[in-house]
Amino acid sequence: MQTTIGDQNDDAFKELYARELEYDLLQEVLLDMTYDAELGFLSLSETQLLEALSASWAATHLQMHTDQPISLLLGSSSLSKKQQISFFSRVEDKFTQRLDAIPVELTDDTQKSLKQLNLRKKQILDDLRAAQNKFVETISQICSVISQLFGETRSKTQTRSNLLLASVLLEEAECLSAQMTNLECTIPHEARKHSDTLNYLKRTKNELDAELQELNSEVSRLNGILTEYRNQDSKYHDLVRRYRECQQQLALRCELLGQQHCQLSTGDNPHISRSTKCRRSLSLSSLSQITRRL
């Protein structure tokens, strides 16, 4: 349903209202097209053309002048003629949709209502500006109170903070002084450590040399004892050998003497001679066993 405009006695007001309506509709269309661009419904070239239109509308809204005419801004787009026609036809469709959405006819009563709305809008704007001024004033008061409180708090706590900082620095200085004293005591000790170690090693070497000499003397003494033992052992074996030889010679002589005695007494008493022979043989065997044991 298209909007019809009734008879207007004031042509100036009619033109002004038409301009205002066109301005508001253009603002809504540009906003709607911006949503389409954010949702990805426009190509890159169409987005650039929309940015050019938005810049032109913003310049008009802020009563500013662009460096280049609008025709040049539109001509700088990379869209073809057909694409530009399609883009602006989409814009016109959005205009048509918004015009069709107006359900009332513009009459004299509507004109009065519009004037009242404009007055109400102006009053609301004035109230908004007053609220903004009051808000700015309140913010400035809050900032001043905060700065004052901060200054008072800083002046009260600065002395305590300085005392705490001084105590901390004093403790650190004492710790550093103790470390310096410890280093001063450690440096001579570390410097003497090499000479002390060398003296200890020399002393240990001398002790080991003395122990080695004692061990060598003990080994020499034991070697002498071993040599003497071996000499005595050889002498002992020599004596044993000689003793055995003497025993053997003695046994041989006893046997020879027994045989001679046996031959001399055989003719007189043969029984006695036999028993004597047996006794002699026993004594000789015992003697040989004793000699063998030795």
Topology of helices and strands:
Layout: H1 11-38, H2 44-61, H3 70-75, H4 81-100, H5 108-264, H6 270-293
Helix pairs in contact: 1-2, 1-4, 5-6
The radius of gyration computed from the alpha-carbon positions, rounded to a whole number of angstroms, is 71 Å
End-to-end gap:
159 Å
Q: Helix and strand succession?
A: HHHHHH
- Quote the beta fraction: under 5%
- Number of separate helices: 6
| Largest beta-sheet characterization | none
Low-pLDDT windows of residues: 1-9, 68-76, 272-287
Helix content: over 70%
Structural class: mainly alpha
* Overall pLDDT: 73
The tally of strands reads 0
Inertia-based shape: elongated
Coiled coil: 198-232
Keywords: Coiled coil
InterPro entries: HAUS4 (IPR029327)
What is this structure, in a nutshell?
By secondary structure, the protein is mainly alpha-helical. The protein has helices spanning 11-38, 44-61, 70-75, 81-100, 108-264, 270-293.
What would your notes on this structure say?
With 294 residues, the protein is mainly α. The protein has a domain at 8-102. The chain has helices at residues 11-38, 44-61, 70-75, 81-100, 108-264, 270-293. It is elongated, with a radius of gyration of 71 Å. The model is unreliable at 1-9, 68-76 and 272-287 (pLDDT under 50).
